[in-house]
Specification:
Elements lengths: L3 H11 L3 E5 L4 E9 L4 E9 L5 E9 L5 E4 L10 H11 L13 E4 L6 H9 L3 E9 L6 E8 L4 E5 H4 L1 H12 L5 E4 L3 H11 L6 E3 L15 E2 H9 L11 H9 L3 H16 L11 H9 L4 H12 L1 H15 L14 H20 L1 E2 L5 E2 L17
Helix pairs in contact: 3-5, 7-11, 8-9, 8-11, 9-10
Length: 386
């Protein structure tokens, strides 16, 4: 097997080579711009062999989509380099999209008739939806390319790049601004900023599973800060040094296996390495699956976080009711007197804070360094004391 250095040299040699690639339903030609190990092939100057239709910009192809590759000589346009062909086909077998095996039900909306109307009507009937977005451009200058909306049964992928402002005016704005539809988002700042800057739409009634400092200043409503508030409660009042990624939140709270998180890691990697990927049309089906995967868990995540945030309240009520039922009734007791069970919350908070101080390091700012956690099987956890 070739070493990583040899593989890198091989991939570098392939750059600027013109190829004809056979996919399951068509054949295209183009010049290799970049090949990323175990990820994707990016072509430029792309055209369809049968129709001659040109594709603007670059085209991204996932390795598993490729059926056959022929290297074309620039001299006569049809000479195949067999030495490259065998090597590339061997390498292609390793170019896979992490999480591609996940079967996620999604519907692509890229035109304003047929599917758009029924999708908007279905979303309007929901009380809670998951929201995600993919953009292109620097902060404060982003352009909204894709908007994902998840219901309990299906994920809708709205191609805003193709639909344009008409999709916003003809239904999506009413959904985003509807105060009776709760939108579950992981870090709402980018979505809110794009909707307001491009379309003058204000995102309302948001449950944010993550928070970044100052995110509340970008919205016209109170944001429920779930993961951060839960960390604050479980550590007895400490704030973390950083917010959690969606993958971390899902793994921590929903206990999802690594296989379910691979699509999210893959999507994040593609966004970092190829920020123009959301501009590519037609969008590869595997990339659409990644978009759907990024919002499919938001609704169950919200319910679990709410349950966790309410756990102290539930325990306190249970303790208070149990104490009340086991003691004789004192009708002369002042109904406004603070029950002793409530005072025990101070003890619980102190125990949690001591637990956090033992298991985490603190930064110079007094924040908890999340990466410094030191587990100890001999120490009772803070959740056990609740």
């Amino acid at each position: 097997m070739a070493s990583s250095a040899e593989e890198c040299r091989f991939l570098d040699d392939l750059r600027k080579k013109r190829v004809k690639i056979s996919l399951s339903e068509t054949q295209i030609t183009g010049v290799i711009q970049r090949i990323h190990p175990k990820k994707t092939v990016i072509l430029e100057d792309v055209s369809e062999v049968k129709s001659g239709r040109k594709f603007p910009g670059v085209k991204l192809i996932f390795g598993h989509e490729i059926v056959k590759v022929d290297f074309i000589s620039s001299a006569n346009g049809d000479l195949v380099y067999e030495e490259h062909k065998s090597e590339f086909n061997s390498f292609r077998r390793k170019i896979i999209l992490d999480g591609d095996e996940h079967d996620i039900k999604y519907v692509v909306i890229d035109e304003l008739h047929e599917k758009f109307g029924p999708a908007v009507m279905h979303i309007k009937e929901q009380k809670v939806i998951g929201i995600g977005a993919d953009v292109f451009g620097q902060t404060a200058q982003e352009r909204l390319c894709w908007l994902q909306v998840a219901t309990k049964k299906v994920v809708y992928l709205f191609d805003i790049l193709l639909l344009g402002g008409q999709a916003i005016k003809n239904g999506l704005s009413m959904i985003m601004e509807n105060p009776h539809i709760l939108k579950v988002v992981h870090d709402c700042r980018c979505i809110a900023r794009c909707l307001r800057a491009e379309f003058k739409v204000n995102l309302t009634n948001v449950f944010d599973t993550q928070v970044r400092h100052g995110s509340h200043t970008h919205l016209n409503q109170i944001i429920k800060v779930a993961d951060l508030m839960l960390f604050y409660s479980e550590t007895g009042g400490f704030l973390p040094d950083r917010v959690s990624s969606l993958q971390e939140v899902l793994r921590l709270h929903l206990k999802l296996p690594t296989s379910d998180l691979l699509p999210l890691w893959s999507k994040e990697l593609h966004t970092k390495e190829y920020p123009e990927v959301w501009y590519i049309r037609p969008c590869p089906p595997a990339l659409m699956s990644l978009m759907a995967a990024s919002v499919r868990h938001l609704l169950p995540l919200r319910l679990l976080l709410l349950d966790a945030l309410m756990s102290d309240y539930t325990v306190l009520v249970d303790a208070y009711m149990s104490s009340y039922q086991n003691q004789s009734l004192h009708f002369d007791q002042d109904e406004l007197t603070l029950p002793k069970e409530a005072e025990e919350l101070l003890s619980v908070r102190r125990e949690r804070r001591e637990w956090a101080a033992r298991h985490y390091s603190l930064t110079d700012r007094g924040l908890v360094d999340r990466s410094s956690f030191k587990p100890s099987p001999h120490v009772k956890t803070h959740t056990d004391s609740v």
